[in-house]
Amino acid sequence: AQTVTQSQPEMSVQEAETVTLSCTYDTSESDYYLFWYKQPPSRQMILVIRQEAYKQQNATENRFSVNFQKAAKSFSLKISDSQLGDAAMYFCAYRPNYGGSQGNLIFGKGTKLSVKP
Amino acid sequence: GAVVSQHPSWVICKSGTSVKIECRSLDFQATTMFWYRQFPKQSLMLMATSNEGSKATYEQGVEKDKFLINHASLTLSTLTVTSAHPEDSSFYICSATAGGRVRYNEQFFGPGTRLTVL
Q1: Where are the domains of chain A?
Q2: Which of A44, A91, B71, B94 is deepest in the core (most CB within 10 A)?
């Protein structure tokens, strides 16, 4: 079975500092996607960043970057220059790619990030 | 970006009644829609996957007779919670994917519906 594990229920960071959220996953598939979603208090799910498993280069989106270690099945999210608006629940998610079909997203339990002013 | 709406955003009902939640893709055709359930301070759990014009596929442990899903058009899916009980109180989120895109089919999420059963 495919699983996603987030071992940090809560994290805290000082404004303008950098924080890394951890995520590991388990799968026997070789072709898949990994995602980080943000869920602020409004509870609207927002896609932060995605990574395709066949790409070795780590994805980056402005202040957000990932450290994708395929062999270790690790997918951490680094947030640089943290801002108050980054405070939210962050979910790591996995989705297998079955020839382009809409595979289901499998979510981790989430990490609650607090940003201190 | 693609927009998905949900209606209502929150609903309170009495135990034993049925509640219908609508999920609409506003600016794209959604060939597949997903329904999730999220309890307080927990993750999203997939309930079912629906493809337009066909029966929904339910995840293990989800009662299909209690959670009726209809995906009658490419822009609308509905989730009906029948004979709701307090334990059905939760946050329900839908998402949708647009057909026709190669390889990567992003799921666009609705804002969610908070259901409280008294």
Answers
A1: 3-116
A2: B94
